[in-house]
Amino acid sequence: MQNKESIWADGCPKNVKEEYKLTTQELLLLAVDYVVKQYAMKNGFKVEQAMARIEYLPNIIMRKNDILYAVAVVPFVYPKYAHLNNEVRIKFVNDAKGYNAVPLFAPVGFKSIDKERAKASMALKGDLFDVLFRGFIKLNDEPNQQMLIPNNEFLRL
Description:
Layout: H1 24-40, E1 46-50, E2 60-64, E3 67-77, H2 86-98, E4 102-112, H3 115-119, E5 129-132, E6 137-138
Parallel strand pairs: 3-4
Antiparallel strand pairs: 1-2, 2-3, 4-5, 4-6
C-alpha cells in the first residue's frame, strides 16, 4: 500500500546521498508495473511477459483480440522526456516483426508531488509521484521517428 504522504519535507533537500535517489532500473520497474497493472490488466490485455530490465526489449508482451503487442517501456523524470535512440528503435521494430507483434513505445514519467522537487527533476525514494502516461506510440523502422507527439496522438488500445 502506498503512503499517503512523502517522507521528505517540502522543497529540494541539499546533498542527497545517491542511495536515496531512484535509479533508472528502479524507475523502469515502477513504469513496467504501472503499465501492466494500471493499463494492460484494466483494459483486457493478457500479459504474456513483463520484464523490467534496462538491457532487455520488449519489456512487456501482451495480447488482446488475437493481436500481439511488444512494448518498450522507457521511464523519465519530469520535466525531461523519454525516447529511444534510432538504432535501438529500428532493431526493436525488426525483432517485433519477426514474431508478428505490433511494436509500441510507452514513455512513463514520474513527477514529484512537491513542486520544487518536480522542477528540479528529483526522484527520491519515499517521495510521492504523479505518473505521466498518455498511451503508446506505434514504432516504425524509418531512419527517424518523432517521439515527442501531441497528447491526442498517443494510442489508447
